[in-house]
Design goal:
Length: 291
């Protein structure tokens, strides 16, 4: 029988004995001669350790983690693509300016407040317009807004991270949204992965949807859902631009933005539920004055 004893400085007193294929397995005291009794060849792996690991549950006996509960994002096409937004998970929404990030953010907040949930928007750039939020259907009396509009993006990011830790620790919110969309990407990327991992663990096993809105994905594997948005085209109207002017008519070349056509791509999903359609959809967003 051929055997080898392997030990490391990190596991003193816990030697591992490997017995090669075709060898025999027999019990013998330490330092004794190899067993020479004839037995059928067999492949074996024997581990000797102390009793402190007796309570470790084998991976084969671990309970299966239940699938995350999904709630509406407020946009039917998006719900068809992803199944909604998962509770107890981190969802990333990324895209450049005018890609529909704010549209999806306001829709998700409106859907959550209509469900009677209290929500939080941690606004890194103090960019939210309350009137636009009300027009989008958000019940403002159920929305807590944390304004982080400091003079420098670095200070704003520091405030956002500190506020998020406190909010996740307190609990009781249906949706916590982090709006990092107006921060420079080089600043947002300074958030270490350990911070995102801490956020993910804090929201796990809670009914809270943690939503991060960014220009580029920065949470890595810590996000359970990653949605990338992009602009397809703008809808503009010349007639409405003239009609809405309370002063002299606007120049003939003036146009008024009335809506967007947006492309949404499901980049990553670590959820049990698979999308019912292709991994990409389009949806429209209209301005309040477009009717």
């Amino acid at each position: 029988m051929s055997s080898a004893v392997v030990s490391t400085s990190a596991a003193q007193g816990r030697p591992f004995v490997f017995i090669e294929e075709g060898s025999e397995v027999c019990s013998r005291p330490s330092g004794a001669e190899p067993c020479t009794e004839g037995r059928p060849p067999q492949r074996a792996f024997s581990v000797f350790t102390d009793a402190r690991l007796a309570g470790v549950t084998p991976a084969s006996r671990l309970a299966v983690r239940p699938a995350a509960e999904m709630v509406s994002s407020g946009i039917a096409a998006m719900d068809a693509l992803t199944g909604g937004l998962p509770r107890g998970c981190l969802t990333e929404i990324c895209g450049p300016a005018s890609s529909g990030r704010t549209t999806l953010l306001l829709a998700a907040l409106a859907a959550a407040t209509r469900r009677g949930e209290c929500c939080v928007l941690v606004d890194a750039s103090d960019a939210l317009d309350p009137q636009s939020a009300a027009d989008a259907g958000i019940e403002l009396d159920r929305l807590l807004r944390v304004r982080c509009g400091e003079n420098s993006p670095e200070k704003s990011l520091e405030q956002l991270l500190r506020a998020t830790d406190l909010l996740l620790e307190s609990g009781g919110f249906g949706l916590i949204a982090l709006d990092l969309g107006d921060l420079p990407p080089q600043v947002a990327r300074r958030i270490p992965l350990t911070t995102w991992f801490r956020f993910r663990r804090a929201v796990e096993h809670t009914p809270t949807v943690l939503l991060a809105v960014e220009r580029q994905s920065i949470a890595g594997s810590c996000s359970s859902l990653l949605i990338k948005l992009g602009l397809i085209k703008l809808w503009e109207s010349e007639n409405q631009a003239s009609e809405m002017s309370s002063q002299a008519p606007l120049p003939t070349h003036a146009q008024l933005l009335t809506g967007l056509e947006i492309r949404a791509e499901l980049v990553r999903s670590r959820l049990e539920r698979k999308p019912v359609r292709s991994a990409e959809i389009t949806f429209a967003s209209k301005t309040a004055w477009a009717g």
